[in-house]
């Protein structure tokens, strides 16, 4: 059976007969090895069919179908531990570990997580979502197993993109000398979400250029065969040649026994190699060559497009188009190119998220001013700091959840020195199907205490554009923080607009008794609630600095202040307002609405907001409850006119 998927089976009664017998890895291990190729073809077909209906991460999983089967076939999971890096590639693993029938609810409310998750299955040994954590976690497991005297295999699976991060090398550097019983599988597909960058990735890619190592290795053996007196020289010569053209030198100097490269889609070779390596003690690394999107032609040709997809047509591969206007990400990309045309000091930086952060056009139009640093958020931030020291104007495009990884650099290298760096912080707030690992739930809280930092939150598309202008014009560090997806649909006034003065809030509606102080994405919902309750509505715009005079005026003229933000309540924008009131000795009833102290699981963005009480009905309900407690609920609030 071919491993290339051509479309739905002509026998729809049971298009996956062998896969349907696999309810857990114990079933898989009972199969003869001769049936594994058929299983791989069926697993690949099931994965494509499933993701075509639900959307989700596809190309990465297609690249590790054979590896996923081989790992569960050779090792005694879950007693033996498999740690997946990032987790985009874990769908085949989920299908083989008893979750096949739940794939129809992938990334939906109450359904499967899009990433390995410890609470979901004992086969998910470590919860992931961020890159480059697998080696550290697996090393910790190996050390713990040794301490407890529990012999078990520990396997970390990491891609060449994730290997570019410093954390992976920190773990390798620490792990080798400890001589742990640890196996690392390097899944080398020459691909991360954006095209891979850096010396490590380039070195791995060169291995594929013409089979140089194999030819030299075999040539040297042939030339020296029959010369027993030179047997030791043969070994030395082989290691010398190997070191010139292979990455083994790097890994073996770190203490890992290097094996490979091996064709990751030759399941017999992968199974055989894993069986041999299972008997090897100590730290070892298997280098697999795979293809992202393997077996589905549209994904092979466009692996970035099929990295994370909406539902698509199974036969043609046509991806369903997203409706609506321009996203905040696209607005940022347009602004970046616009500003770069006018100022040649502008430099754009991304940690391996060119497509997701809206930098494709910028990278094509200004290639000498575009810097993709790979999966290296810490480096991205300090790189920008160094550029700013020399009078350049760096703009760092980064997701909120990934800026967490560069927090020390934000604090120490940028803010402490007051350097002129603009941060375009995307995916702020809840992010829907990607769930808690990718939610930007904490940036107000972690950024607000940092000195010299301006933090802005646009309420709509036009404000996003002009806040970016304000942040770029500000001679110091500034964050513009915007959500995933589209806004309320406000047209951008590029001709008549102006940069927003730092710290200036905007009263959107005058009412009575209640003032809704809303930040960023929750302003539109607050306006709806303001109409229902005849409440004052303020678009706060700035988390830091706050518009102190306006807040104090609101406190004087209203009996209840309600802050609304798509950030954790703890330490967030509402906390900042309470701190100001306490500092000024102002006593007024406050209600802080934001993300509760729990991880918000995957669902649609609207479902997540409703679960947090941050949609229109949730905000209104919370305010009415507070008004009842204040004895102000007798007024005819709903639908009341302003006055």
Give the biggest sheet: 7 strands, mixed
CATH topology of the largest domain: Rossmann fold
Number of helices: 26
**What is the topology, as strand order, of the major beta sheet?**
9-8-10-11-13-12-17
In terms of structural class, how would the helical and strand content be classed?
alpha/beta
Q: pLDDT average, as an integer?
A: 89
CA-CA gap between termini: 75 Å
Which runs of at least 5 residues are low in confidence (pLDDT < 50)?
Answer: 201-225, 237-245, 635-643
Helical percentage: 40-55%
Catalytic activity: D-glyceraldehyde 3-phosphate + pyruvate + H(+) = 1-deoxy-D-xylulose 5-phosphate + CO2
Cofactor: Mg(2+); thiamine diphosphate
Function: Catalyzes the acyloin condensation reaction between C atoms 2 and 3 of pyruvate and glyceraldehyde 3-phosphate to yield 1-deoxy-D-xylulose-5-phosphate (DXP).
EC number: 2.2.1.7
Overview of the molecule:
There is one protein chain. The protein is built from 26 helices and 19 strands. The chain is an alpha/beta fold and 643 residues long. The strands form four sheets. It has a seven-stranded mixed β-sheet, with helices on both faces. A five-stranded parallel β-sheet has the order 2-3-4-6-5, sandwiched between helices. Strands 14-16-15-18-19 form a five-stranded mixed β-sheet, with helices on both faces. Helix 14 runs parallel beside helix 21 (461-473). It is globular, with a radius of gyration of 28 Å. Residues 201-225, 237-245 and 635-643 have low confidence and may be disordered. It catalyses: D-glyceraldehyde 3-phosphate + pyruvate + H(+) = 1-deoxy-D-xylulose 5-phosphate + CO2.
């Amino acid at each position: 059976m071919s491993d290339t998927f051509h479309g739905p089976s002509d026998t729809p009664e049971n298009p996956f007969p062998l896969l349907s017998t696999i309810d857990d890895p114990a079933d898989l291990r009972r199969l003869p090895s001769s049936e594994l190729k058929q299983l791989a073809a069926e697993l690949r077909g099931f994965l494509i069919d499933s993701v075509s209906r639900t959307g989700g991460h596809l190309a990465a999983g297609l690249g590790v179908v054979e590896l996923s089967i081989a790992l569960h076939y050779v090792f005694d999971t879950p007693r033996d531990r498999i740690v997946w890096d990032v987790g985009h590639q874990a769908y085949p693993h989920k299908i083989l570990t008893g979750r096949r029938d739940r794939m129809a609810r992938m990334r939906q409310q109450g359904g499967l997580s899009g990433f390995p998750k410890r609470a979901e299955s004992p086969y998910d040994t470590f919860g992931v979502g961020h890159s480059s954590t697998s080696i550290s976690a697996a090393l910790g497991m190996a050390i713990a197993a040794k301490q407890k005297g529990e012999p078990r295999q520990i396997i970390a699976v990491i891609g060449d993109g994730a290997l570019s991060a410093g954390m992976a090398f920190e773990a390798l550097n620490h792990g080798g000398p400890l001589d742990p019983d640890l196996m690392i599988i390097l899944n080398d597909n020459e691909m991360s979400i954006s095209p891979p960058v850096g010396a490590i990735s380039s070195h791995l890619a060169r291995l594929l250029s013409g089979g140089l190592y194999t030819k030299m290795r075999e040539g040297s053996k042939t030339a020296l065969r029959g010369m027993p007196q030179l047997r030791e020289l043969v070994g030395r010569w082989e290691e010398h040649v190997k070191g010139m053209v292979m990455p083994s030198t790097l890994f073996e100097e770190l203490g890992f026994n290097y094996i490979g490269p091996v064709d990751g889609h030759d399941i017999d070779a992968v199974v055989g190699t894993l069986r041999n390596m299972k008997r090897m003690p100590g730290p070892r690394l298997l280098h697999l060559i795979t293809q992202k999107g393997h077996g589905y032609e549209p994904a092979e040709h466009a692996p970035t497009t099929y990295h994370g997809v909406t539902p698509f047509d199974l036969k043609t591969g046509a991806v369903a188009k997203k409706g609506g206007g321009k996203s905040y990400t696209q607005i940022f990309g347009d602004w970046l190119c616009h500003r770069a045309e006018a100022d040649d000091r502008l430099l754009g930086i991304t940690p391996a998220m060119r497509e997701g952060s809206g930098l494709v056009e910028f990278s094509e139009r200004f290639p000498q001013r575009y810097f993709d640093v790979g999966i290296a958020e810490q480096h991205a931030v300090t790189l920008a700091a160094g550029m700013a020291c020399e009078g350049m104007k760096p703009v760092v495009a980064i997701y909120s959840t990934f800026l967490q990884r560069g927090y020390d650099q934000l604090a120490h290298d940028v803010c402490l020195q007051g350097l002129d760096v603009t941060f375009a912080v995307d995916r702020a707030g809840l992010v829907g199907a990607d769930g808690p690992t990718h939610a930007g739930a904490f940036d107000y809280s972690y950024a607000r205490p940092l000195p010299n930092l301006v933090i802005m939150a646009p309420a709509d598309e036009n404000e996003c554009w002009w806040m970016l202008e304000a942040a770029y014009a500000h001679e110091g560090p500034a964050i513009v923080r915007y959500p995933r997806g589209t806004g309320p649909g406000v047209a951008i006034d590029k001709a008549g607009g102006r940069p927003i003065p730092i710290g200036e809030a905007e009263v959107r509606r005058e009412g009575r008794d209640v003032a809704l102080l809303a930040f960023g994405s929750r302003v539109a919902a607050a306006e709806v609630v303001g109409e229902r309750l005849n409440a004052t509505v303020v678009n706060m715009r700035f988390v830091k600095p706050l518009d102190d005079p306006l807040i104090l005026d609101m406190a004087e003229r209203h009996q209840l202040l309600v802050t609304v933000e798509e950030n954790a309540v703890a330490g967030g924008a509402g906390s900042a307002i309470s701190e100001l009131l306490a500092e000024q000795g102002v006593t007024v009833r406050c209600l802080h609405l934001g993300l509760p102290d729990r991880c918000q699981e995957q669902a649609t963005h609207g479902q997540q907001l409703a679960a947090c009480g941050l949609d229109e009905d949730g905000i209104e309900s919370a305010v009415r409850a507070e008004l009842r407690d204040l004895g102000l609920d007798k007024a005819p609030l709903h639908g009341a006119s302003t006055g």
